[in-house]
Amino acid sequence: MPTKIKINRKSVKKNPNAGQSVHHLPGRITITQVMITGECTDGGAVYRKRTYIGSKLSPDKQQLVDGHLVGEETRTIEYNNAGQFPPPPPPDWKDSISVNTSIQEIHSLTPQPNWLYEYEDAEVECSICRSEFPWEKLESDYGWDADDEIYSNSVCPECGAWECCEIEFEKLSDKELEAIAKLNKPKRRKK
Ligand SMILES: [Zn+2]
Known about the structure:
By secondary structure, this protein is mostly beta strands. 6% of the residues lie in helices and 44% in strands. The strands form five sheets. The chain has a four-stranded antiparallel β-sheet, with no helix packed on it. A two-stranded parallel sheet has the order 1-12. A two-stranded antiparallel ribbon has the order 2-7.
């Protein structure tokens, strides 16, 4: 006789992402660092703007540690007797660092279910070593039997026996789940 694992009635709730087959996850991080350097030459102040791209920041978050150079520009600003010495870099040339996280789209083959729920705790017994434990402790394992890949998701956590017990998860239709969810909703008090 398989052990029946019941759906925890109180845990039934509507899945806010029901029916969706696209999930959004934070993806790759791109950090862009712009560094301005300058030096005085006979012809004027030579400024260099270097752009680096990478994905890791130094612990003080002030610098890229794995940056590689992706762009370099040079601009010469001539000396002007009336102006500042050395002349400042172009106004839009500033040291900066920016972090960008792209959003990754994951497409799954099966759309998300309409209802979410958890299963209740229940003890199961290993048919080999006779130890008892909650079903959540069952382990999974896979291996090869000749040329076939074999798999078990009811491996005993104590003795390691495969298919150590039989369990059967309760299944309810969307209609039944909806009815349970309705009962879970707090009732409004009558005046
Ligand atoms: Zn066992």
